[in-house]
Specification:
The structure holds two protein chains of two kinds. By secondary structure, chain A is mainly alpha-helical. Helices cover 79% and strands 0% of the residues of chain A. Chain B has four helices and no strands. The chains are: A mainly alpha, B mainly alpha. Chain B: This is Succinate dehydrogenase hydrophobic membrane anchor subunit.
Chain lengths: 130, 115
């Protein structure tokens, strides 16, 4: 069948990952996946902190006191970066789903917009948190 | 004869749409919670607790969290389907992910409506 014909046909393959240059929208795509996976792994930590912050005044104070450590604030900033990056990349995908910015040039440009926006937001939030 | 795989991405459209729908729900909640944080500016336990003691807010937060878990389930499922080729391992990982996300939903109820 057509399916097997494609499979048996010898085609040139290049799986040398070091010589493949991923285009910018491709970089954004893999970042979307990586940040999504990271957020999923961090989810129980977030839920646990949310629970502790609401449980009693004592546990609330504990959660709040965590913010006194620079390392915790840095981790928080990393988490916020994952969230913002994933959020903005996702918004771009929603627009592409609506057939906005599908063309190559527009897709490249919107990728740069997303990176610029996430970097700017991170600098602003970083200035507040650190 | 129709050949169907036990696990595979052959049931995608509904999930594709849900991925977008849940994303939209989360974006709306994010906007709402940012506005509330900016207005209330909670610094004490009572102020913080007060936000989520509001029944409407607890309900909306729950909707947000369910959207988040559902979104995460679809996304993580896609990752397993893309990279894990062994059916047994894939099934195990899918079950584990589903179990965890369902468990998180119960946890969210406990957090928001604790007795």
């Amino acid at each position: 069948m057509a399916d097997t014909a494609i499979r048996t046909k010898k085609r040139p393959k290049n799986l040398d990952i070091m010589s493949i240059r991923l285009p910018l929208p491709g970089v954004l795509s893999i970042i979307h996946r990586l940040t999504g996976a990271a957020l999923f792994i961090l989810l129980p930590v977030f839920l646990w902190l949310f629970e502790r912050s609401l449980a009693t005044p004592e546990t609330f104070a504990e959660v709040k006191a965590l913010g006194n450590h620079l390392i915790v604030r840095l981790i928080l900033l990393g988490f916020i970066w994952f969230y913002i990056q994933h959020f903005l990349t996702g918004l771009r995908y929603l627009l592409i789903d609506l057939h906005k910015g599908v063309e190559l040039e527009a897709a490249r440009f919107s990728t740069k917009v997303v990176f610029a926006a996430s970097t700017t937001l991170m600098l602003v939030i970083g200035a507040f948190i650190l | 004869m129709i050949k169907r795989k036990l696990v595979g991405a052959h049931y995608g459209f509904g999930d594709w749409l849900l991925q977008r729908g849940t994303a939209l729900v989360m974006a709306l909640y994010a906007t709402l919670i940012l506005v509330i944080m900016a207005v209330v500016q909670p610094s004490t336990y009572l102020e913080w607790r007060g936000i989520f003691d509001n029944r409407v807010m607890a309900f909306l937060t729950f909707i947000y969290l369910v959207a988040l878990f559902w979104h995460a389930w679809i996304g993580v499922r896609d990752i397993w389907l893309d990279y894990v080729k062994n059916t047994g391992v894939r099934l195990l990982l899918l079950m584990a992910t589903l179990a965890v996300t369902i468990g998180y939903t119960g946890w969210a109820v406990q957090i928001l409506w604790r007795v």
